[in-house]
């Protein structure tokens, strides 16, 4: 098996180059779950730094392949390098499901964000995983990550929408308190993070700070 850094995005997610968007989403969730902080497998074989690097690579692979335009550009680069046959690329462009997030910055001013906000809220209300987590008295960083994963919101999307450095967002999810900014800024970052997930800001913020002993 190739070292992780040498794998292309399809190999990272363990999918074929002609995989449909639904397969990409499923592979992303499966891969992310495998390497998240409470996974026995990840603790057994990788250091914390290696695990975070793998998670970052998984998210970048997902962001690229779930975006039709970015995927086409990426596929063309693989074809040009002789790493992919054009016949093996995904062709059914007319039957793409509508993604919750449109990753093209040029479309951020369209009416779509309002619709995505409604979809996120609806998904949060319908998910038993999310309801169970929000019912807890405290929320760990890993719980925030589970909430984000259940809503299928990549960390890069939050970083882009909030202008918060992604290493800070990762520190929040891993409870790396030595990397935390002063508490007043941390609370602001947490509020922005929670808003991106369309969750109850007070409930999530208080539960997370309570877990850390800050509340």
Write a short abstract of this structure.
By secondary structure, the protein is mostly helical. The protein folds into two domains: 4-95, DnaJ domain (Helix Hairpins), CATH 1.10.287.110; 105-212, lambda repressor-like DNA-binding domains (434 Repressor (Amino-terminal Domain)), CATH 1.10.260.40.
Description:
- With 215 residues, the protein is mainly alpha-helical.
- The chain has two domains: 4-95, Helix Hairpins (Orthogonal Bundle), CATH 1.10.287.110; 105-212, lambda repressor-like DNA-binding domains (434 Repressor (Amino-terminal Domain), Orthogonal Bundle), CATH 1.10.260.40.
- It is 62% helix and 0% strand.
- It is built from twelve helices and no strands.
- Helix 2 (21-35) packs antiparallel against helix 4.
Q: How many helical elements?
A: 12
Total individual domains = 2
Our measurement of the CA-to-CA distance between the termini, rounded to an integer number of angstroms, reads 46 Å
pLDDT < 50 runs, ≥5 residues: 94-111
Q: Looking at CATH, which topology of the largest domain would you report?
A: 434 Repressor (Amino-terminal Domain)
pLDDT averaged residue by residue: 82
Strand content: under 5%
- CATH top level assignment of the largest domain: Mainly Alpha
């Amino acid at each position: 098996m190739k070292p992780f850094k040498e794998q292309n995005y399809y190999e990272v997610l363990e999918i074929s180059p002609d995989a449909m968007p639904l397969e990409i989403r499923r592979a992303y969730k499966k891969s992310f779950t495998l390497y998240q902080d409470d996974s026995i497998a990840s603790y057994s074989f990788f250091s914390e730094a290696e695990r975070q690097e793998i998670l970052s690579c998984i998210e970048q692979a997902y962001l690229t392949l779930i975006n039709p335009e970015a995927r086409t550009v990426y596929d063309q680069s693989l074809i040009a390098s002789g790493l992919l046959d054009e016949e093996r690329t995904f062709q059914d462009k007319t039957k793409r499901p509508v993604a919750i997030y449109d990753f093209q910055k040029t479309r951020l001013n369209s009416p779509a964000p309002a619709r995505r906000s409604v979809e996120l809220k609806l998904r949060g209300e319908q998910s038993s995983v999310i309801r169970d987590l929000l019912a807890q008295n405290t929320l760990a960083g890993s719980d925030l990550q589970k909430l984000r994963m259940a809503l299928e919101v990549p960390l890069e999307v939050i970083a882009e929408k909030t202008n918060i450095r992604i290493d800070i967002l990762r520190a929040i999810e891993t409870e790396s308190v030595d990397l935390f900014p002063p508490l007043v800024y941390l609370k602001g970052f947490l509020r922005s993070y929670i808003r991106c997930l369309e969750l109850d800001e007070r409930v999530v913020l208080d539960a997370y700070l309570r877990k850390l002993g800050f509340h």
